Amino acid sequence: MGLEVAVTFLINFGGSALSFSGKATPGNQIVRLIGIEATQALYDRFEGVSIYRIPVAKKFLARYFRSCNLSNSEIARILRVTDTSVRSYLMSDEQLRERTGKIKDDLQRFARSKG
């Protein structure tokens, strides 16, 4: 399964609980979306798993769409989130840790000033 097929699959099925059992059939909604070969590859990969919850993967999708040169607003509309959520998805983990640390420090200062 290529990257574009994976993105299409995540956009359409992210957050769903799916059953991958048996063989992919032409009438299957996953087959209609990504094709029989990609669907059968999923079935083979998850064979024996009765129900699999597909991740929402918004951070991954935001970074993918950014690599396609989409704006934060365009990404937000695709992912059905706010542009501020997209900005946080696109931050590096280090930037997020720094931001969280600053917020925590501000809250502690505020609590001390009120206490």
Topology overview:
Layout: H1 3-13, E1 17-18, H2 29-34, H3 36-45, E2 52-53, H4 58-67, H5 72-79, H6 83-90, H7 93-114
Antiparallel strand pairs: 1-2
Molecular structure report:
The termini are far apart. The protein has a two-stranded antiparallel sheet with strand order 1-2. It is mainly alpha-helical. The mean pLDDT is 89. The protein is elongated. It has helices spanning 3-13, 29-34, 36-45, 58-67, 72-79, 83-90, 93-114; strands spanning 17-18, 52-53. Helix 4 packs antiparallel against helix 5.
List its traits.
3% strand, 7 helices, 2 strands, 65% helix, mainly alpha, 115 residues, two-stranded antiparallel sheet
Care to give the gist of this entry?
With 115 residues, the protein is mostly helical. The chain has seven helices and two strands, in the order αβααβαααα.
Rg from Cα = 20 Å
Order of helices and strands: HEHHEHHHH
Largest sheet: 2 strands, antiparallel
Largest beta sheet: what is the strand line-up?
1-2
How far apart lie the N and C ends?
A: 57 Å
> What is the averaged pLDDT score?
89
Query: Which range does the strand content fall in?
Result: under 5%
- Tell me the number of strands: 2
Domain count: 2
